[in-house]
UniProtKB/TrEMBL annotation:
<dbReference type="InterPro" id="IPR039426">
    <property type="entry name" value="TonB-dep_rcpt-like"/>
</dbReference>
<keyword id="KW-0798">TonB box</keyword>
<comment type="similarity">
    <text>Belongs to the TonB-dependent receptor family.</text>
</comment>
<keyword id="KW-0812">Transmembrane</keyword>
<dbReference type="GO" id="GO:0009279">
    <property type="term" value="C:cell outer membrane"/>
</dbReference>
<keyword id="KW-0998">Cell outer membrane</keyword>
<keyword id="KW-0472">Membrane</keyword>
<keyword id="KW-0410">Iron transport</keyword>
<feature type="domain" description="TonB-dependent receptor-like beta-barrel">
    <location>
        <begin position="259"/>
        <end position="781"/>
    </location>
</feature>
<dbReference type="Pfam" id="PF00593">
    <property type="entry name" value="TonB_dep_Rec_b-barrel"/>
</dbReference>
<keyword id="KW-0732">Signal</keyword>
<dbReference type="InterPro" id="IPR000531">
    <property type="entry name" value="Beta-barrel_TonB"/>
</dbReference>
<feature type="signal peptide">
    <location>
        <begin position="1"/>
        <end position="26"/>
    </location>
</feature>
<dbReference type="Pfam" id="PF07715">
    <property type="entry name" value="Plug"/>
</dbReference>
<dbReference type="InterPro" id="IPR012910">
    <property type="entry name" value="Plug_dom"/>
</dbReference>
<feature type="domain" description="TonB-dependent receptor plug">
    <location>
        <begin position="42"/>
        <end position="156"/>
    </location>
</feature>
<keyword id="KW-0813">Transport</keyword>
Amino acid sequence: MIKKRTISLAALAALTGTFGSGSAYGQVEEIVVTATKRVQTTQDVPVTVTALGAAQLQDLRISSFTDYLQQLPNVTAQGRGPGQQIITVRGLGSSSFPVFLSGANGKTPNVALYLDEQPVTMPGRNLDVYATDLERIEVLPGPQGTLFGASSQAGTVRLITKKPVMNQWQAGFSATVSTTKDGEMSNKQEAYINAPVVEDKLAFRLALFNDSQGGYIDNVAGTKALDPSVNPRFLPGNAGHQAGADLSDVTFLDASNTDLVEEDFNDALYRGLRLSGKWFINDAWDLEVTHMRQNLDADGVFDYDPAVGDLDVRRYTADELGEKWHNTAWTLTGRLAFLEMVYTGGYLDRDVDQSIDYTGYANVGPYIPYYICDLAVSYPEAGQDPSGTCQPPNLNTHNIQSVRKQTHELRFNTPEDYRLKATFGAFYDHLKLEDMGDFGYYGSQYVLDREGRRGFAQNAPLPGATTINPNPRDPGVVFFNDVTRTEEQIAVFGEATFEVVPGLWDVSFGARWFDIDVDLRGSSNTGFGNLAGDGGDSDNGNNLDQRLAAFRPAEEQDVIFKAGTTFTPTDNLLFFFTWSQGFRPGGLNRGCSPDTEVPCTYATDELTNYELGWKIDLFDRTVRFNGAAFFMDWEKVQASVFAPEIVGSNLNFNDNAADAEVWGIEGDLTWAVTQGLTLSGAFTYLDTEITALADTGSIAIAPVGSELSTAPNFQGNLRARYTWFVGDYQLHTQTQVSYASSAYSDIVLAERRKMDDYATWNLSAGVRKDRWRAELFAQNLTDTRAELFISTQDDSPRTFTNRPRTWGLRVGYDF
């Protein structure tokens, strides 16, 4: 027990560091990681790992998802703002259909996200965990499937929280205020307290945060009407709709956003807490329990429309996001004979309530006339030109998602001093995602049905289908989803390392057997002008319980492997070679039928990785250069496409669209120049290529030879930090430059847009005395509009960008 506690405190001391990220002796600091589910330093673990320790997280003012992704050159994201992003590692990106419209339809991510020991990965959107009071962030690029499971095909991102410390009262707070060019003020407060309760036995730690992020995007005035010249599918192929039909007798009413015009309307607020406790039960066993709660509230949108103006959009209905989640996790550690046993589990409960302006669907929706136009437009008599009125297209979708996820893992470790070191165990995961989406067409209550009656159906779930909400929807909801997705997996895994020549040469081998079931139930329904009481269009084939009966569940059983060797000629040199496999589960498509191109199932995509890595410390550990060269072969790449014309459920479908390969090299270099000056940098170079297209051709993607999505050829950053003393005052200054070359937003041709290269520059300076600290900072000094992602949802391309130039002050105190 004493040895265990000594290791924990030593690791904490190394991770906490000082306000600067270099050591007091002019050497590069050591960071302890658990990348192989054993405690090792970054220089001792034969795995490529990028780690941001507690001192670096503080130096870089990292709080949210976007903050830490921008510090990692081998990591990018596809997304549209807080709570709506998908991680990409080493350029292994394909398509990014924004499945927040229907999360149950989403592909499983190919990058695993862990909160301590618990995987919190889920379809549709990553959990946007606020990064407060963390020990470190670990990024493990490349397949990590043998130890970390299904979604770690392209890599694993781990957020490691600070744990309770025995026998020490600790407390502290920090407060930040900042102003953004042409935007609103922002402020955040963070605090922590570590409370020992029973000496050497029990302690608790509490972290609190409140981060109010001011807006910087304007919703500007405008109008919009249905425009057949923009949407050529405005007049579907009905008998009376001939090519070149005369629309002069059709009245198109404008939607106006006058009531919603607002400057800086994209506010976000993160609030929450994390409470953890650690109990040393006896000399052999200890228990950690952590509970975290987080609320995220956001208004507006976080991408702008360049066609409207710089940081401007036109939105015609309210955009609002309310997300709350709580997570309870536990880790029981002890010894059974010579084995260390670890049982870890967790339960996650997440609820999302989001309203989204859907007016852009008028540009692409094939059924718009049926939804918001009078009878004479929707159903003209044969041979006659249409006439009548089409209501304003101020469309909206209201989405409610509920996720319940539990995980359990039991694993064993052999002692560190054995020549044969092994980690092995079993894993269980169960996820249930309930997804309801109501698509509102506010003019629809005036639509005439086939018999000339006014009104619209209060559509209800289809008879015999699994339901979340069995009640009819409100008038004006002309289409809705009521879909439940479940995923269940069990796995047995193990990795073993044998010291062929102790201290010089090791070989390793790993494997994971898994069984994964994915199920999809529920229904979608629409009315097409039926009045309340008519039952809606109950024969439209969107009863998923019936449609997918022969394919449910989508089950996958297989084994993946990993092998490698490590050579350590000196204490300061380590070289390793790894061959590893990764996978991402397939699933079900709700819109499949024999009459369409949509497959009922899509298969697992598979990745094989070949990697040569190195860990090098030079000049008395004042210079560190870590890196890896790799080749990855990606087969049966999953892609998504928005295809309302052919998908019966009116949204998207997934399929295995291509094969691809990635060549790359990545590295990070740190130089402790003097006791106070540290220079550091990191880079990734990628050569990604689509090598083959699927025979089915169900999804039109970029041709062979094209780059993958969100895969810049080069990304890198350089940072310099200098710390010195003036009397009792410790001062510092820091500057950082980041660069990313151009990239593409998607591999699907209809959604593919080129994103320009960009560079950003940050600067900070601060002072510390005793327990007080203060810092002035400037982010994005050049006010660059980085094209982080371009979304083409509803045929209205918008650019997700970084925050404009921001100045701020941060102060803190540690008791």
